[in-house]
Amino acid sequence: MGTGTKPGLIDRFFSLQLSQKINYAFAFFFFVGIFQDIFDYGGFTDVFQLTGALAVVVFVVLAQFDNVAIRFMQFLLLLLLSFFLVLTNDDPSQLSAFILLSVSLAAAYKMALFGRKTLTILGITVGLTLVFAYAAGVSHGFSVWQRINVINFVLVYLGLLFFIFEEETLSLRRQRDILTRRAESIQPFAELGTNVAGLVHDMKNDIAGLSALASVERLSDNHDTAATLQRYAERLDDRIESILYVATAGDHHELEPISLGEVLRRVVYYFVEVNRDLKHAVHLDLYVPEEVVVETRRNALLSILENVITNSIEATEGFADRTITVRAVPSREGAVITIEHRGRHLPWKEAVGTPIDVRSSQFFRRGRSARKDGTGLGMINVIRALEVIDSRMTMENLATGVRSTVFLKSAGTGRAIPDERSVTEPATDGV
Hints:
Number of strands: 8
Distance between the termini: 27 Å
Helix content: 55-70%
Shape: elongated
Order of helices and strands: HHHHHHHHHEHEEHEEEHHEE
Strand order of the largest sheet: 2-4-5-8-7-6
Number of helices: 13
């Protein structure tokens, strides 16, 4: 059983979606109103006070969900309530209706509720508000200047909110553009420096020396010694090739046939087996039941695998079982790679077993990270790599841990590939 720390009440609240936070805020507002009625009147004296109690229940229930229907319902509820208060307001100094309206408009803008038509819908809403405010002023006998002051407040107040939100949007857009430019090259994060090729060349000279000694021993009839030397030379050569394969992936941006069994084995060695802190702490099971070859870009594939495996390792910190399982099977379009761990869940509300598409999820596209000190740049790099190789990836919370699934497209290698349903078949052989 894992021993990872659970997030506190405040952390869980701030991890909620915007619509859920707004629902909880209004539930708290009406909840305080109930106590005020009880304190002032000793109970509920009219139907409106009972409505406030019902509102608490409604908003708490709505706060348990976050989907498009809930967001539209919330926007329409706040909008209709604010319009009702505007039309029934008989006090020109009472501005609560417009403050409530600003909440609904700000939420719709922040959540991009109407897509590309968001600004149009908000503009129409503001226009209707001005008409209702003027009509209410006429029906309640406001003077001309009182009506002008109300309209002036609406224009200036909502305009200032829009400028503030738009400035934030522009700032986020600039940050996104910066992160995107950094991710353009899709360079894997694991770097050994510019001298890695020279380092490998130097080591290969030593390997050649070991092979030469093995030949000498073999000529001297010391076959056991020769076999041992040759075995060490081949193992050292394979490890060096793994380091070279991963560390120089950034230079391989052209389509090439790639054996997933080979690339996964080299990635595992590079990120786990040579890491002194992880070698005996993290157990990584690798299953590739048959030869799976796809034609894709090595730098993009390595960028995806590196980030997902690294995140999986970090997610198991503090858990007793730090096993990470990696599987690769052929599919109709290319191959499917699944990476599972038994660590921390993803911080979202989707039910267990509900896959979320990484490329379309705003959670990842906004550069968010599950770690307090994370930047989210790694997942942005993954999204960019997926777009470049025209593939997709899903992530889902399991009963214990998380499963990441990469649906890898192949540019075509001329070999028949079985149906994608084979991804659900259990692997039988380890690599």
